[in-house]
Inverse folding.
């Protein structure tokens, strides 16, 4: 065990922890918006897969990761639009329609992958941008300030989202619609429009989360490459008590444990690798079991709103 | 010449609704209703539940569209497509179920949906300043920075009124505003009403309480079965006349309660402690004794532990400490069935959640507790002939109006469901009856019937605990009245000596005895 606690390894864990948190942050912050407005979108995983594929494909064809990112965002918004239509306009059971959306994304991304590419290829994604001066801080500088632009964006998204939710008129509408849509309606707030906006924003961020894997972190696309990350992101929203900073805490905890278990495997420490891989998931279950009681979620979460019904 | 309110908004001089018709699937909710209100008056809209009062007002507030008829504001025809349109026309509505977001602060609730002076960013300081001005001006005390969930209902209602005034409301619709208040709070509210009317506001006061309507209104309109049953100036009408207009036939408002010799103690509650949903003791050391042939009324503002006490007595909520003794048998923490077997019946507060199963038929609901017993069941098979015979008898005995015994209860009116539950519980000939809000949301006709059945039960020697927020009901039926405040019994008074003022003070937590 002792070889894990050397300086280079700890610096490495810090570096990978920050990197790995990126897709979770995008997806979970996006889902936070959807849930704060009262829509439970369980289809995050499917949207991530579609985002990962479209980002990769467009990036590969055009040679521009930025265009790939744009494509992923647009595809994410379209998936969000589909989810909002089903859950807000048609008032379907949200848990079930989210699972449907996930399966749809999983199937469609695999199909498109097989018909357009067929085999795994890799591309050159976003390159690391070293931030001068900050990256020169001894020990931690390289781990924190030598990442690609999506990693920085993911972390900047957190304070930005907290600000939008707590300090703007839009944020107030979102919070009100998720807690008591009828009250918001009587004050002239368009409940459906707010929910559409939040679910589409969540979809866009989930699309970007997927693209962050395929064109910024791993730089390849495989079938079902997200492997449950979208569901973990939904769990992180609960874990973080529906607050962006709480969500970030959860994402970091999860990704650090993940980075830690990767290094256990790299260092060949004598723990069966299956157990190492399990660690972050076991931790998530434990954390959720203890975390959900303290925070109160949006009261209208997963309840469709219809005017005039008491 | 246009007159202005002190809030700076022009006064809405007259609102007139003409020939309003509103249909819902299978129901004619409003049938050619004419209604009008003028600046400076309080116009009461009186009627039973389901008479169409709220429906009429929701059309005025843009929540429903009328199928026929016109809404005229200052002579101009209006078409409201959403509450926002009504707000823009100077109309505000205080809903019966408050339209507040509990997790937000008072100012956030008021700022919701308004344009901010700082564009996209909230400007809560400015909102707060204006809220304090309005609060001062109309004598509506509020704490702008408190979270709504921390506040008592009286204060929540003041926030609702300020919310409407902040949006420039000149005409205010108040849907059953007194239902959740203590008598003293009602007096305060009426003072505010008078002040608002004298300023030039027009007020529509929806209620089914005759005393309150007569105390505050200039004119009174009664709705019955969706129709306007008459509009009268306050001076020209009596309580009895109003009740008759509401129900469509003469109604008894005063009951005859002959003396009954008290029997043995049937229900004994000793130092009972019961946890509420938030983990604190909602019932905090209650002791009561009720004898056979006695009705003990339990009064109090809702949320002071009455619901938890009733649930504990029914065996639906664990008892943390103390004893419940029914007919000399300890049943503390026993199952609901054990309570029933010792001779207790229970009429729960939420008839659609706990009292009946919405989608089950009348017959199935009737045998919920007794389906395993004779004659309903023989060798664990349901005997449908016996069920129909027995249930049919209860249904006719208790005057339940239902198309058939196989009709799902959700298709019956509130009053009929309540009579059905009452029939089920009383047909068991209970020696102890726990009746929680037995007539809430029930029309006067059915209330009158239920009250008489409860009084008959008293003559038969049943010990009844009547939990109600309706002081008139408590005073009309009870032998003794206990008042519950913050989980404790703050005092027990003899019904003959109790005045509404004294009870009101006790409900507010003042020990008077």
């Amino acid at each position: 065990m002792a070889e894990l606690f050397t300086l280079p390894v700890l610096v490495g864990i810090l570096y990978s922890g920050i990197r790995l948190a990126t897709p979770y942050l995008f997806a979970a912050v996006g889902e936070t918006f959807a849930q704060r407005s009262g829509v439970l979108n369980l289809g995050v995983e499917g949207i991530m897969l579609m985002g990962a594929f479209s980002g990769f494909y467009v990036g590969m064809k055009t040679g521009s990761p930025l265009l790939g990112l744009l494509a992923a965002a647009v595809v994410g918004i379209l998936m969000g639009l589909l989810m909002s239509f089903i859950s807000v306009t048609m008032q379907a059971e949200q848990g079930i329609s989210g699972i449907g959306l996930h399966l749809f994304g999983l199937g469609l991304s695999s199909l498109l992958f097989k018909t357009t590419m067929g085999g795994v290829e890799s591309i050159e994604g976003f390159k690391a941008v070293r931030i001068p001066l900050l990256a020169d801080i001894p020990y931690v500088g390289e781990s924190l300030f030598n990442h690609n632009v999506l990693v920085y964006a993911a972390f900047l998204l957190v304070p930005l989202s907290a600000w939008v939710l707590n300090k703007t008129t839009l944020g107030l509408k979102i919070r009100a619609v998720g807690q008591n849509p009828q009250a918001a309606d009587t004050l002239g707030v368009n409940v459906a429009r707010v929910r559409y906006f939040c679910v589409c924003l969540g979809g866009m961020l989930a699309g970007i989360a997927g693209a962050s894997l395929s064109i910024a972190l791993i730089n390849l696309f495989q079938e079902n490459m997200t492997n449950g990350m979208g569901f973990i992101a939904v769990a992180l929203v609960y874990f973080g008590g529906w607050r962006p900073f709480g969500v970030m805490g959860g994402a970091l905890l999860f990704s650090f444990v993940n980075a830690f278990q990767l290094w256990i495997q790299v260092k060949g420490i004598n723990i069966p690798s299956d157990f190492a891989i399990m660690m972050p998931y076991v931790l998530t279950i434990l954390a959720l079991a203890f975390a959900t009681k303290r925070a109160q979620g949006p009261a209208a979460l997963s309840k469709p709103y219809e005017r005039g019904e008491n | 010449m246009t007159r202005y309110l002190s809030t700076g908004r022009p006064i809405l001089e007259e609102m007139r609704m003409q020939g309003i018709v509103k249909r819902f699937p299978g129901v004619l909710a409003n049938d050619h209703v004419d209604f009008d209100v003028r600046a400076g008056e309080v116009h009461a809209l009186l009627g039973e539940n389901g008479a169409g009062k709220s429906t009429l007002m929701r059309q005025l507030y843009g929540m429903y569209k009328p199928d026929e008829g016109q809404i005229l504001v200052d002579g101009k025809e209006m078409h409201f497509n959403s509450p926002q349109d009504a707000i823009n026309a100077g109309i505000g509505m205080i809903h019966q179920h408050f339209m507040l977001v509990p997790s937000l602060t008072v100012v956030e609730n008021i700022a919701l949906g308004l344009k901010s002076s700082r564009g996209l960013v909230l400007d809560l300081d400015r909102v707060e300043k204006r809220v304090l001005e309005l609060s001062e001006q109309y004598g509506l005390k509020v704490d702008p920075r408190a979270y709504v969930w921390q506040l008592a209902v009286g204060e929540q209602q003041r926030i609702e009124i300020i919310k409407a005034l902040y949006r420039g409301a000149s005409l205010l619709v108040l849907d059953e505003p007194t239902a959740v208040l203590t008598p003293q709070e009602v007096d305060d509210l009426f003072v505010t009403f008078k002040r608002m009317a004298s300023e030039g506001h027009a007020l529509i006061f929806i209620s089914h309480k005759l005393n309150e309507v007569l105390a505050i209104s200039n004119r009174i309109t009664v709705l019955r079965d969706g129709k306007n049953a008459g509009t009268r100036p306050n001076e020209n009408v009596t309580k009895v006349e109003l009740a008759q207009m509401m129900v469509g036939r003469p109604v008894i408002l005063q009951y005859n309660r002959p003396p009954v010799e008290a029997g043995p103690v049937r229900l004994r509650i000793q130092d009972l402690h019961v946890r509420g949903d938030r983990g604190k003791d909602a019932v905090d050391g209650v002791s009561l004794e009720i004898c056979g042939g006695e009705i003990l009324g339990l009064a109090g503002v809702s949320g002071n532990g009455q619901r938890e006490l009733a649930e504990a007595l029914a065996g639906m909520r664990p008892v943390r400490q103390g004893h419940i003794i029914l007919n000399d048998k300890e049943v503390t923490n026993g199952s609901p069935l054990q309570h029933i077997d010792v001779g207790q019946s229970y009429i729960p507060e939420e008839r659609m959640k706990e009292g009946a199963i919405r989608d089950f038929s009348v017959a199935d609901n009737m045998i919920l507790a007794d389906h395993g017993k004779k004659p309903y069941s023989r060798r664990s098979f349901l005997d449908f002939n016996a069920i129909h015979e027995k249930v049919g008898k209860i249904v006719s005995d208790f005057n339940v109006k239902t198309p058939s015994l196989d009709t799902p209860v959700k298709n019956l009116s509130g009053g009929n469901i309540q009579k059905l539950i009452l029939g089920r519980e009383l047909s068991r000939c209970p020696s102890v009856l726990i009746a929680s809000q037995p007539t809430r949301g029930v029309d006067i006709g059915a209330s009158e019937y239920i009250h008489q059945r409860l009084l008959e039960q008293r003559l038969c020697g049943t010990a009844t605990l009547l939990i109600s927020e309706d002081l008139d009901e408590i005073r009309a039926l009870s032998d003794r009245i206990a008042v519950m405040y913050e989980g404790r019994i703050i005092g027990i008074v003899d019904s003959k000596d109790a005045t509404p003022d004294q009870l009101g003070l006790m409900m507010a937590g003042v020990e008077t005895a």
The mean pLDDT of chain A is 92. The CA atoms of residues 21 and 221 of chain A lie 19 Å apart. Chain A has twelve helices and two strands. The radius of gyration of chain A is 20 Å.
